[in-house]
Amino acid sequence: MRVRRTIGSLDLDVSLYVEPGEVVAVLGPNGAGKTTLLRAIAESRPAGVVFQDLLLFPHLTALGNVAFGPRAAGRRRREAEAVARGWLDELGVGDLADRRPSQLSGGQAQRVAIARALAIEPPLVLLDEPLSALDAGARPEVRRDLKRALDRFAGAAVVVTHDPVDAAVLADRVVVVEAGRVVQEGRLDEVTARPRSRYVADLVGVNLLRGTASRGRLDVGGAEVAVADSAVDGDAFAVVHPRAVALHRRPPEGSPRNVWPGRVAAVDPEGDRARVLVDGAVPLVAEVTAGAVGELGLAPGVEVWASVKATEVGVHPA
Predict the structure, then answer these.
(1) Measured between alpha carbons, how far is 183 from 233 in angstroms, rounded to an integer?
(2) Model confidence over 104-128: pLDDT tens digits?
(3) N or C terminus of the chain: which is more exposed, having fewer CB within 10 Å?
(4) Same domain (yes/no): 179, 268
(5) Total structural domains in the chain?
(6) How far apart are CA 155 and CA 23, in angstroms?
(7) Are residues 49 and 120 in contact, defined by beta-carbon separation less than 8 angstroms?
């Protein structure tokens, strides 16, 4: 689909395709046109929509809110409520079916709004920052429930988010929009390894490592990553900003908890800094000064050691 809109200073011209069963995350800075894109799509084709204001009917229960769409589509009450209960259960709020929106927490209301969008069984569902209004404690659980629901959903899904962890957990592909144009798209690991703008480098260009967390460590394909948060257990993502990765030509002195050998795969200069792609048991992108590139002799094929403080590793349940 191609979306063209001119609103004030925003000139939006975006081509977007999403296959049935696929989830695409749209990322971009404030004012890039992400929400405008979603609203334009919602106006042009049948879709289930969850915007940030949720707009649940205050006089209806959670069950009534979710059953409203199927009922409006002509389903009998009992059938519509069965569909609604199925989606409420899928999103972990089946026991709250009789509560009204005023009796729900933010995370519970968000789940109900998502269930309402999915219950009409649309060919496309659109979600605008579905987790941004939640506190840090509620976000991982809602993210997991949303992931499970989208896995069950047969249609296509577009999720606007600013969080690379949301994109990593929920999406098959990401599309980066800046100033109304697509500047980059592909799998998240492809985008983070080769950012094409400062926004992508700063916000999306983080290292995302998936593994199994246990007792302050993350097992990533046989290599261990020490993390400061020992509360996360099970399938998880570790997030490391490239600026937190230090490179050395020999094993570093002292006792950094995370040190791995690797080989430079690419050096991409960006002004007075450079992004260095390091292949190894723990593949990483490091951001270093242009001076460090010369001092360390960094070039493709050079063997290096990468170190990261455990306190610089953010860990999130997958």
Answers:
(1) 36
(2) 998 899 899 999 999 999 999 999 9
(3) N
(4) no
(5) 2
(6) 9
(7) no
Asked whether the CA dihedral 41, 46, 51, 53 is positive or negative, the reply is: positive
Cα separation of 181 and 195, whole Å?
15
Cα dihedral 121, 145, 225, 198, rounded to 10, equals 50
Domain that holds residue 246: 207-317
pLDDT value at 162 more than 70 = yes
Facing residues of 267 across strands? 276
Assess whether 82 and 178 both reside in one domain.
Answer: yes
Between the two ends of the chain, the Cα-to-Cα distance in Å is: 31
Length of the chain: 318
**3-class state of residue 91 by DSSP:** coil
User: Whole-angstrom Cα distance, residue 215 to residue 230?
Assistant: 5
The CATH number of residue 130's host domain is 3.40.50.300
At 44 the pLDDT is 85
Q: Where are the alpha helices (DSSP H) in the chain?
A: 34-44, 62-72, 77-90, 106-119, 139-152, 164-170, 188-193, 198-199, 290-296
For the segment 281-309, what is each residue's pLDDT rounded down to a tens digit? 898 999 999 999 999 999 999 999 999 99
Radius of gyration of the chain (CA): 22
Asked whether residue 109 falls in the same domain as residue 20, the answer is: yes
Out of 145, 170, 197, pick the residue that ends a domain: 197
* Number of helices followed by number of strands (H, E) in the chain: 9, 18
- Quick one: 134 and 272 in the same domain? no
Q: Residue 29 in contact with residue 16, Cβ under 8 Å?
A: no
Residue with tokens 């915007």: 51
Mean pLDDT within 171-175: 94
Per the structure block, which two tokens stand in for 248?
């050395």
Eight-class DSSP state of 204: I
